[in-house]
Specification:
Elements lengths: L5 E2 L16 E2 H9 L4 E2 L4 E2 L7 H17 L6 H8 L3 H12 L3 H19 L4 H8 L4 H12 L3 H9 L1
Antiparallel strand pairs: 1-2, 3-4
Helix pairs in contact: 2-3, 2-4, 5-6
């Protein structure tokens, strides 16, 4: 059986002293890097750092403005990075740094803000509110709304009227 390459720990000095951290294979480290997660231990630290220039921050500002204006359209990290001329990694890292949220969460927040506004100011059916808020599916819209606000869109609308 071929030996497995172990990265990040050394064998214990004495058989009675167990290693402080389970050994991590090189494939596990690659997986962590791909998932943009980090592990910290006395033996190994894996973290992806993205440096952002002032020009990158202007692009991130443009991305936020784009989302605020085009929230009803389908927006992905790939399409947005092409739109603003920034790599996907820099875009995602910069959005996280500037807003404290992932791109997905930021888009969701913008859409939910618009949905709440429409629920209060119109009598449009939920399908129309969902469409205008960027959700192609009324059922998914209702599920996301309830998960975030802990009440359904219908209940929210009713509470705002009363």
């Amino acid at each position: 059986m071929p030996s497995k390459l172990i990265v990040g720990c050394s064998p214990p000095k004495h058989d009675l002293i167990p290693p402080l951290l389970p050994c991590i294979s090189s494939q596990s480290i690659k997986d962590l890097i791909m998932e943009k997660q980090s592990i910290n231990s006395p033996y190994v630290t894996v973290e992806k750092t993205v440096r952002l220039s002032p020009a990158d921050f202007r692009c991130i500002d443009n991305a936020l403005r784009y989302v605020d204006k085009h929230y009803a359209e389908k927006i992905s990290a790939d399409s947005l990075s092409l739109e603003v001329g920034l790599s996907k990694d820099k875009l995602q890292a910069g959005l996280q740094r500037c807003t404290g949220k992932t791109l997905h969460k930021y888009i969701q927040e913008v859409r939910m803000t618009k949905a709440k506004e429409l629920l209060i100011t119109t009598n449009d059916p939920l399908k129309s509110v969902a469409d205008a808020s960027g959700y192609a599916n009324e059922s998914h819209f209702c599920k996301v709304f309830k998960k975030i606000h802990l009440i359904s869109p219908v209940q929210y609308r009713f509470q705002q009227i009363v």
